[in-house]
Amino acid sequence: MPITCAATPSLSSSFLTSPLSASRSHPFPNLSLTKHLRLAVRCDVAALPVLSFSGNKVGEVPLSLKSAPAETSRAIVHRGLVTEQQNQRRGTASTLTRGEVRGGGKKPYPQKKTGRARRGSQRTPLRPGGGVVFGPKPRDWSVKINRKEKRLALSTALASAAAASDAFVVEDFEQEFETGPKTKDFVAALRRWGLDPKRKAMFLMTEVSDNVLLSCRNLGTIKLLTPRMLNLFDILDSEKLVLTKSAVEYLNSTYGETTQEEDEGEEEEEEDAQGDN
Fold this sequence. Notes:
elongated; alpha/beta; six-stranded mixed beta sheet; single chain
């Protein structure tokens, strides 16, 4: 999905185009970046078209989300993406050293008078079946990220998709599949909405019925997410973002202007508490 950093077409080329290119070309941002972002957060408003199940435009709905400014949007989203992916690593890979490999207790041949190099064990890393030198061991790969910084990265990516016209709203269509799941009907609906079943698209719905989930289960390019499953990688990895009206209300209430005012109030309270101390 081409990502922009604001709800204006003039800023469409100042953001990352894919998560893979971001990890290769941009270094890990400074941890003190949030200090500069605290007073630079803004709220962008975009009007998303609303389509019916038949594919006709029936209106528009506003999407008002917090967004990072153009000069810091790349860094904040890149940091959020790297942190999200790194925190998913289990860190359970483990290899055996020469002291942990089974066997090797007996000295293979005498130390001297053989004309060969001395060897104390057959489990040396130089022999097949021996230990591993500097191999992976269980470790914790998790990286800390501030809650507000993580939310800002997510809302910036959503606002960028809306600014690039890569997002639209559809009316609730769960009742269309009440008789049973039908992948053919779901593919036909995708084509009416202007989506290619072979291109990646993400649906954000507050509730996903079993029939709708089964109807798109065989489509590897379609992802159905709920607010609890919403993540930054799926937003950047998809070419189109499809929302329902209830999902738009959730995004406006969670990542909108009212949330920004609440965050600023919390920051002022924290600063006052630090000043008193």
